[in-house]
Design a protein that fits this description.
Lyase, Ornithine Decarboxylase, Chain A, domain 1, elongated, ten-stranded mixed beta sheet, 20 strands, alpha/beta, TIM Barrel
Length: about 400
């Protein structure tokens, strides 16, 4: 059941239970809830003091891109030429920003010449040289120097691979300005950042870098990391983040500075649920039709405070879907591949009555599921339905 790019071509159901009743999905099924994606986009468009770039890596599927466009998102944080081409093919008027600090040879040239991309990131002299050489027209570019901001507060840090210290960054800013491009700064406080104060601290690092460089920057991209609510994790409301960011920006004393952010998880996580089926139950083991090589890849890298809170769902004798009730117990959940590593890293809590053929639904599965799935062993989750429209 491949997902078309138009929402009106997806099967539509009033609720998740109705979708399970109607489709009885033998393969994993993504349930899209457009109102949740629209609501998340509106929060950022209304509350953030600048341009909102959707981080495409969180979910590059046409279904997600189209819904975000319909919700008013016009800017896209793209990290490869492939992502740029996917966005521009589906949404020709979209504005793409190439925000990866290291690019494959020739990708900056193609992005600039073929797709009109003018925003790029660097964190080294060599990447700056390569960018200037490939584009050949620095006066048309905004070049963002990426800072290291290892501040804690995030479940997945993003500063060990990319970024440079203020001393090095200040020299890069000066070089960008000397080349005739617009010097800018960016950082990333880490994925699923639960501390609004981390953004204020990072902006202070940006201020120190500007002072060291003696260069006036044209824009500041505060990156992504905005969290979503998972089981056992209730992050602060987004307006706390926006207020903290606005206060820190005011302290910069640059009221006309252009500002950007790159939410990914925060825009799509809550808008997609995943329905899996129990292929077999063996004691306290459940063998599901999706696993680590499919929609649950991120579970290997981010440790959430508590287990995912899935719902067990069964079809009664009349084919009506109902949520299983009763005392819950921990189950070890295995995926469908023949690899023994294909097992969720933490037990899932489900009613003891769950049986072979029943379904398990996981909410908040819109981020880093579709983007990281593989076809390992011949399994590839790609069923889709629309809920509540």
């Amino acid at each position: 059941m491949n997902a078309p790019t138009r929402f009106d071509a997806l099967p539509c159901f009033a609720s998740s239970l109705k979708a399970i009743e109607g489709l009885k999905p033998p393969e994993p099924l993504y349930l899209v809830q457009p109102e949740k994606i629209s609501s998340a986009a509106k929060q950022f468009l209304d509350g953030f003091p600048g341009d909102v770039l959707y981080a495409v890596k969180a979910n590059p599927h046409p279904v997600a891109l189209r819904q975000l466009w319909d919700a008013g998102i016009r800017h896209f944080d793209t990290a490869s030429l492939g992502e740029i081409e996917s966005v521009k093919t589906l949404l020709p008027e979209a504005i793409c920003h190439f925000m990866a600090p290291v690019r494959l040879p020739g990708q900056a040239k193609a992005a600039f010449e073929q797709h009109g991309v003018t925003d790029f990131v660097v964190d080294s002299e060599s990447e700056l040289d390569k960018l200037l050489d490939e584009t050949g027209k620095p006066t048309k570019l905004r070049v963002f120097v990426r800072l290291v901001t290892a501040l804690g507060g995030a479940l997945l840090e993003m500063s060990s691979k990319y970024g440079c210290r203020p001393e090095e960054a200040s020299k890069l800013l000066a070089r960008v300005a000397q080349a005739g491009a617009q010097p800018c700064l960016t950082f990333h406080v880490g994925s699923q950042c639960l501390s609004p104060f981390s953004y204020a601290q990072a902006i202070e690092i940006a201020q120190r870098t500007i002072t060291l460089s003696g260069v006036e920057i044209a824009a500041l991209d505060i990156g992504g990391g905005f969290p979503t609510a998972y089981a056992g994790q209730e992050p602060p409301p987004y307006h706390w983040y926006f207020d903290m960011i606005k206060e820190a920006l005011n302290n910069l004393g640059r009221p006309d500075l252009k500002v950007m952010c790159e939410p990914g998880r925060a825009l799509v996580a809550q808008g997609i649920s995943l329905v899996t089926q129990v292929v077999m139950r063996r004691g306290d083991r459940l063998y599901l039709n999706d696993g680590i090589y499919g929609s649950f890849d991120e579970q290997r890298f981010i440790s959430f405070d508590e287990d995912y809170p899935p719902s067990g769902i069964t079809l009664d004798a009349k084919g009506k879907a109902k949520i299983l009730s009763g005392e819950k117990r921990p189950f070890r959940a295995y995926g469908p591949t023949c690899d023994s590593a294909d097992v969720l890293p933490r037990p899932v809590m489900l009613p003891d009555t769950i049986a072979t053929g029943d379904f398990v639904m996981f909410d908040a599965m819109g981020a880093y599921t579709v983007s990281s799935r593989s076809s390992f062993n011949g399994y590839y989750p790609d069923g889709w339905a629309l809920i509540g429209v």
